[in-house]
Give the backbone structure.
Amino acid sequence: MLTWSGNAFGYRPFDGTDAAVAARRFMEIELGPAQYVEMGDERTLFAPDVVLNFGIEDRWELVLEGALAKGLQPDSGPASLVGNALFLKGVLREGSLQDKSGPSIATEFGFLLPDINSDTPSSTGASLTGIVSQRWPALTVHFNAGVALTRQQNADVAFSTIVEGPYEWPIRPVAELFYEREFGGSETGSALVGAIWRVRDEVSFDLGFRVGWIDGQPLREVRAGVTFGFDAFAGGR
């Protein structure tokens, strides 16, 4: 099974995230129906890859995520549930992502939950990430820096820089540089290019192509999915 990132923060189709959260009582679902990954001679299909974001209070959301992974080699074992995590994410400073001046600043922290049915032993870890986002008319940039205790109980650091084209464009180009180092474990570096198509405020489709390396082995990945949201209490009192 391919190595799964120690820090489980995300924003489709990236490894990093943005300094924004779902509105109170709003449910946002980031769904990757099927994502294909190659590392060296190994092939893995993640189907599905799901992130649930629920706004619990103003400026705070609860995040639950995980992915079903199946090796595509003839001798691969049964599917595993990997990348499981439970987080709180909060906006510490409202800024350009909230239609105010200056950078938006957020944090995401919580538990990296054990993998299920994985060949690699794992236990509960923890993660803390700081996020700074700035939006201009022609460009949006998100910078992430995170530290973690991985599911294998190793110290871990991760960095991500996301660049997006004009937010007002229905289809905007995107890119990301990502680096992660698990001390006593794996080292990963990658670059992603892709696009996000905003159909309407609550629905966006994404497509990304990621290349890089994990411990010197070439990494290739195709990511495609959809993000959609709704008021979880619509029609209620």
